[in-house]
Specification:
The chain has 83 residues and is an alpha+beta fold. 41% of the residues lie in helices and 25% in strands. It has a 3-stranded antiparallel beta sheet with strand order 2-1-3, with helices on both faces. Belongs to the UPF0213 family. It comes from Sporomusa malonica.
C-alpha cells in the first residue's frame, strides 16, 4: 500500500507527494530532509491523504493532483479530516 498526500507549507502553498509511510514522510519534510520545495517553507502540515493499492497508483494520483488548479485542490481538501 502507498499514500498520495498534500501538505500545506508555512507560506500557505500546497505540496503533493506520495509515500509508503505517511508519518515518516511528513516528519522528513519537517526536519528539512524532505522535498527541496518544502525545505524553505517549514513547517508543513498534513492536510489530505488517500490510500492507494500500490506505488504505481500513488504516483499516478500524485500527477493527477499536481495538474489540478489551486482552487480544485482546495475543494478536494475541504472537509477532509485527518484520522
Amino acid at each position: 500500500m502507498a499514500y498520495t498526500y498534500i501538505v500545506e507549507c508555512a507560506d500557505g502553498t500546497f505540496y503533493t507527494g506520495w509515500t509508503t509511510n505517511l508519518e515518516t514522510r511528513v516528519a522528513a519534510h519537517n526536519s528539512g530532509s524532505g522535498a527541496r520545495y518544502t525545505r524553505s517553507r517549514l513547517p508543513v502540515t498534513l492536510i489530505y491523504y488517500e490510500l492507494q493499492p500500490n506505488e504505481s497508483q500513488a504516483r499516478k494520483r500524485e500527477c493527477a493532483i499536481k495538474r489540478m488548479s489551486r482552487k480544485a485542490k482546495e475543494v478536494l481538501v475541504a472537509g477532509f479530516t485527518i484520522t
